[in-house]
Amino acid sequence: MALMHVHHYSDVLGMNMDMDVIIPEMSRGQIGQRAKDTQGKLPVLYLLHGMSDDHTIWQRRTSIERYATEAGFAVVMPTTHLGFYTDMYRGPKWFTYITQELPHLVPRMFPQVSTQWEDTYVAGLSMGGYGALKCTLRAPHVFCCGAALSAATDIVQRYEGYRHGEQYLTDVFGPREHIEGSFNDLFAAAEDLAGQHEDLPGIFMWCGTEDFLYDENVRMRDHLLLLGYDLTYEESPGDHQWMYWDEQIQTVLQWLLAGRGQ
Amino acid sequence: MSMAWIQAGFFSDALGMCVNCNIILPMRDVSQPDRTKRPVLWLLHGAHGSCDDWLRYTNVERYATRRGLAVVMPSAHMSNYMNMAHGGRYYDYVSQELPDKMRQMFPLSDRPDKNYIAGLSMGGRGALMVGLARPAQYAAIGCFSAGLDVPATAPYRDEVLGGQSPKGYADIRASIKKLTNSRRVPVIYHTVGTEDPFLSAARKAQEVLSVLPGYNYHEAPGGHEWDFWDAAVRAFIEQLPLKDEPDTWR
């Protein structure tokens, strides 16, 4: 298993960015690990962090490296800081960075990583769950499916008593009154894609029943099912915590493997 | 052209443990197709050092950018880049496993004319040793502030050599003899500071190495210190016989 701390220049953002990348490798002598015997190009999971965190957090709060080795996935953990993986109203073009620049850059930097659509996945938690859903629904030509854990699905809700203040959300998404139906509205994104796409992407969602985001996850579940999405929805007791995400990311990997017929 | 800096941690089968390695990788504009394998400088640290030294104490990233050169900086601890009598198989790691692994994980050329090895002090001797034992693997060798022998005062000398003199790949004089009539010898850039305590060791090495074609020896003011090595790696990179033919991957 190889863990890479990558520091690279982004043309889209005009600045240097950090990301962590896990590349599974077969080694005979490393103890306590089962590595999958990977052949050919590696499937790749773009794994997004939540608010307050950065690109290192999945490494620190879960055992993602071990799970990815066993599954035979490369994992790319980028950051867009507090930017909601969104091309900001006033700020950097994070969505373009995540959905256009990185999928080109990563296989160039790591030639073992597949460039194929059917090998490219996205997942995330909380704000990163929003990002994963947005990538899946708004960049379906890049990511073949996506998984969202404890996702922020309704950004209009974020404006209610948001601790960073409304100005910040306006900087990210634009004026509150223009959000509904916009590119950044996941409910609208799901409708737009359902209206134009014959094969809708597979989506996995999990949320804890005590999570403050539970209600909006249920609403998104019902919305996606109504629109005919191939949704795997799971919920279980729990709130907004890493002990659940550590479990659920393993479920996500199993779900991805099942989708690959493995 | 921009450079990506990658701090890699991975398992080495040769050493039986996890190792750290720094990689500087030239990245082109992402909107352009790019299937180019980069030319590579394998850059070795000195005794008491680590894979971070060249990045922290020199401008090697800036010099490499100008030439589109990838730089791989491994850690070899106090091994002298040898298979230690009492310790890890660092020669196998640096000369074989590391290049194999890095070329698998990154777009790095495996062509001999696009591979170069250099280092300072312990790494300078290491670069000479590896490069001359595997002359078909490298087009150029940079040896900064070192001679042919493991100094009598070198730390961990007994652990490395086990009380024996270097044999086989580790015997640089023997490698030079083998190459005397060979047409395929890496270009050597050998430099040492006139205030360096290893000046006389370097001068002795010069007498032996000067039988090889393409051997260049330089003395310049300076000691056993980073100011000197910053200038040395810059000069080495500027002189590299980089070819333009692309080397591509699929």
Structure characterization notes:
The complex is a heterodimer of chains A (262) and B (250). Chain A is α/β, with parallel strands linked by helices. Chain A is built from nine helices and eight strands. Chain A has helices at 57-61, 64-71, 94-109, 127-138, 155-158, 166-173, 186-194, 214-226, 242-259, and strands spanning 2-10, 15-23, 44-48, 74-77, 120-125, 145-149, 202-208, 230-236. An eight-stranded mixed sheet of chain A has the order 1-2-4-3-5-6-7-8, with helices on both faces. In chain A, strand 1 and strand 2 (15-23) form a beta hairpin. The longest helix of chain A has 18 residues, at 242-259. Chain A is globular, with a radius of gyration of 17 Å. Chain B is α/β, with parallel strands linked by helices and 250 residues long. Chain B has a single domain (2-239), classed as 3-Layer(aba) Sandwich (Rossmann fold), CATH 3.40.50. In chain B, 32% of the residues lie in helices and 22% in strands. Chain B contains eight helices and eight strands; from the N terminus they run E-E-E-H-H-E-H-E-H-E-H-H-E-H-E-H. Chain B has helices at residues 53-57, 60-67, 90-105, 122-133, 157-161, 172-179, 199-209, 226-239; strands at residues 2-12, 17-27, 40-44, 70-74, 115-120, 140-144, 187-193, 215-220. In chain B, helix 4 (122-133) links the parallel strand 5 (115-120) and strand 6 (140-144). In chain B, helix 2 (60-67) runs parallel beside helix 8 and helix 4 (122-133) packs parallel to helix 6 (172-179). Chain B starts with a strand and ends in an 11-residue tail after the last helix. The relative contact order of chain B is 0.16. Chains A and B meet through strand 1 and helix 3 of A and strand 1, strand 2 and helix 3 of B. Strand 1 (2-10) of chain A pairs antiparallel with strand 1 (2-12) of chain B.
